[in-house]
């Protein structure tokens, strides 16, 4: 059962409920917004100063420059790199928050947190060139935190950020340095983008785009540190069996949805929920407290602790329309402002927690790492109180959930491969790529977008690539799509993988103790965890003595939406990865910018954007690119 708005059966079940109750959803608002502004779609609307807004006439009859004289190329380039700056700021602010927390842990100032994975901490130290020999864990943590914060402070323009320098192949670093796009300081690079796009500054579209690429690489730096430090503090993901889709909501439990991105709060909510379970039962919840995830906070706690994922971005409102979510606790990013209005239609507490991310109408609990347990107790208490007000007659939990095996970070993938060859874990992967059992690797990332039926492009492309023996990795709301639709299960491998891919996944999964194949799509984590895929790819490239742009590796963001997705897609291109977009990017008002990002980028970086809105054709194009790369490698 699907609709033309979503292929998620939960949406088909709940959208009529919303309609009957007069609750508008993201799909209603999308419809009301039609027709959308053509100038904006082409990227040729400029709102950078108050002489405007200006827009260039794409048909050539009207104005061809803005009032200041900026042409379409300049306007488009400025608009898109401002999006990159916002994406980089979002990921990197998340990273800074974790780095500061790590520093607090190291200094013994944050008793709610510990270093849960000391081995990871030591491996991070080694990556950053920090000697951890004979040092106390706290001392190592402090050095790592300071080295990470240095990426926000360094003023030496010739010294690249610590994390990017540790994460990329030497060849890639050399190429990026040659193009002057290696970031030296995340904050400075974001500020430079904002400064150079002010009225009357940089108007050279090529120069602007290169500045944007530097910003995207700053985004990558922030993601690397957010991911790796989170692993040290909260634990490194390992394979865990869980479930996904709205059927994970339990009628007999106090359901608390954790939503957003940053694990600093959600981790403590999970811990505190266990301690307050009896309180929930006393309030009448026979199944105690049930934590469920939405978006990337959901992915963070899913891959680390097996907390079930309720849904991904586009159907966050539908979780509330079940009438059985007692509290939705949000931190930062991708939270629709509409949730407070919908929560108010029910008994649901919408609780914001970050001082710089409030929502009108929501309750605010001011979260501080120093008072994390107290804050979490207060939040869980509000959820229990709300449960008592729940109207059982308005509960509509769709009976859809799928088993998902998740938690395939770099270490878990290497661990699974190590079960086949302990001495040389990469060898089974490389051998199977070389002999064609694995035709290539595809990383799926990015969001949902109302411009395409929710999850449909992810699922269509993945099934076609899997049938053609492509190994599939996923993060963010893409991972959420696959989990909800059962593609992170062993059964999916049996059903959809091509014969040679199935044999490889079965051999690795069985050797790794999974009693069967690895799931069809490997869940690597949240949006910031895209850095994990680069780490695996970098290890393969180093081992083969090649650069990332030579590997049969592609990326796809078929339902991209956010500024963060623009930043991720751009660094993916800069790292040499052909990157598919299934949504028309808002750049086509400039032939020059479009050519730069889809063609010239190939010469400069090896990676480039491929735009294809039809998911079947997108899969074919990705297969063609994989084959080109194989041919060039002589395999
Ligand atoms: S949450 S950025 S909708 S992936 Fe990471 Fe999902 Fe995109 Fe937000």
From TrEMBL:
Enzyme Commission number(s) of this protein: 1.2.7.4
Claim: Metal-binding is one of the keywords in the record: yes
InterPro entries for the chain: CO_DH_a-bundle, CODH, HCP/CODH, Prismane-like_a/b-sand, Prismane-like_sf
Catalyzed reactions: CO + 2 oxidized [2Fe-2S]-[ferredoxin] + H2O = 2 reduced [2Fe-2S]-[ferredoxin] + CO2 + 2 H(+)
Keyword Metal-binding: yes
Keyword entries, A-Z: 4Fe-4S, Iron, Iron-sulfur, Metal-binding, Nickel, Oxidoreductase
GO-annotated molecular function: anaerobic carbon-monoxide dehydrogenase activity
Family annotation (CDD domains): CODH
Co-factor(s): [4Fe-4S] cluster
Pfam families linked: Prismane (PF03063)
NCBIfam families: CO_DH_cata (TIGR01702)
Protein name per its UniProtKB record: Carbon monoxide dehydrogenase
Organism expressing this protein natively: Pelotalea chapellei
Gene: cooS
């Amino acid at each position: 059962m699907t609709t033309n708005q979503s292929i998620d059966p939960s949406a088909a079940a709940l959208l009529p409920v919303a309609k009957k109750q007069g609750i508008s959803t993201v799909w209603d608002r999308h419809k009301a917004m039609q027709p959308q502004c053509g100038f904006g779609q082409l990227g040729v609307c400029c709102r950078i100063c108050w002489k405007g807004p200006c827009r260039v006439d794409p048909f050539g009859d009207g104005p061809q420059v803005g009032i200041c004289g900026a042409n379409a190329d300049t306007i488009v380039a400025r608009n898109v790199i401002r999006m990159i700056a916002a994406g980089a700021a979002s990921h990197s602010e998340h990273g800074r928050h974790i780095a500061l927390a790590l520093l607090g842990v190291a200094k013994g100032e944050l008793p709610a947190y510990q270093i849960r994975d000391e081995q990871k901490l030591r491996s991070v130290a080694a990556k950053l060139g920090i000697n951890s020999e004979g040092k106390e864990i706290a001392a190592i943590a402090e050095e790592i935190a300071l080295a990470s914060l240095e990426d926000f402070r360094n003023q030496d323009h010739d010294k690249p950020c610590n994390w990017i320098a540790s994460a990329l192949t030497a060849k890639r670093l050399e190429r990026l340095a040659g193009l002057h796009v290696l970031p030296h300081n995340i904050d400075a690079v974001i500020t430079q983008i904002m400064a150079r796009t002010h009225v009357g500054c940089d108007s050279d579209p090529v120069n602007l785009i290169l500045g944007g690429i530097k910003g995207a690489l700053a985004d990558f730096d922030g993601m690397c540190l957010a991911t790796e430090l989170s692993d040290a503090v909260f634990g490194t993901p390992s394979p865990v069996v869980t479930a996904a889709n709205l059927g994970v909501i339990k009628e007999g439990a106090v359901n608390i949805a954790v939503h957003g991105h940053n694990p600093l709060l959600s981790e403590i909510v999970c811990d505190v929920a266990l301690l307050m379970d009896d309180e929930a039962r006393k309030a009448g919840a026979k199944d105690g407290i049930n934590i469920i995830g939405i978006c990337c906070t959901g992915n963070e706690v899913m891959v680390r602790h097996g907390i079930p994922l309720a849904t991904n971005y586009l159907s966050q409102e539908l979780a509330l329309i079940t009438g059985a979510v007692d509290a939705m606790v949000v931190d930062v990013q991708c939270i629709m402002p509409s949730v407070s209005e919908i929560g108010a239609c029910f008994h649901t507490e919408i609780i914001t927690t970050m001082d710089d991310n409030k929502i009108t109408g929501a309750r605010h609990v001011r979260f501080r790492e120093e008072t994390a347990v107290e804050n979490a107790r207060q939040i869980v208490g509000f959820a229990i109180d709300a449960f008592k007000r729940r109207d059982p007659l308005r509960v509509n939990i769709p009976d859809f959930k799928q088993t998902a095996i998740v938690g395939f970070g770099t270490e878990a993938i290497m661990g699974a491969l190590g079960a086949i060859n302990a001495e040389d874990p990469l060898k089974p992967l490389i051998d199977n790529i070389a002999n064609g059992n694995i035709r290539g690797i595809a990383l799926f990332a990015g969001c949902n977008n109302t411009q395409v039926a929710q999850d449909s492009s992810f699922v269509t492309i993945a099934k076609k690539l899997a049938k053609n023996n492509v190994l599939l990795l996923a993060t963010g709301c893409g991972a959420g799509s696959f989990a909800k639709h059962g593609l992170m299960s062993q059964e999916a491998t049996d059903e959809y993988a091509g014969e040679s891919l199935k044999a490889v996944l079965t051999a690795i999964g069985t050797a790794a103790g999974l009693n069967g194949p690895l799931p069809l799509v490997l869940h690597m984590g949240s949006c910031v965890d895209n850095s994990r895929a680069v780490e695996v790819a970098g290890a393969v490239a180093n081992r083969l003595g090649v650069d990332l742009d030579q590997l049969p590796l592609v990326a796809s963001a078929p339902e991209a939406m956010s500024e963060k997705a623009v930043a991720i897609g751009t660094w993916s291109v800069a790292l040499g990865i052909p990157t598919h977009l299934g949504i028309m990017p808002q750049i086509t008002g400039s032939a020059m910018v479009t050519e730069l990002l889809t063609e010239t980028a190939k010469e400069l970086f090896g990676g480039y954007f491929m735009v294809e809105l039809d998911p079947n054709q997108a899969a074919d194009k990705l297969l063609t690119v994989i084959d080109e790369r194989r041919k060039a490698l002589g395999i």
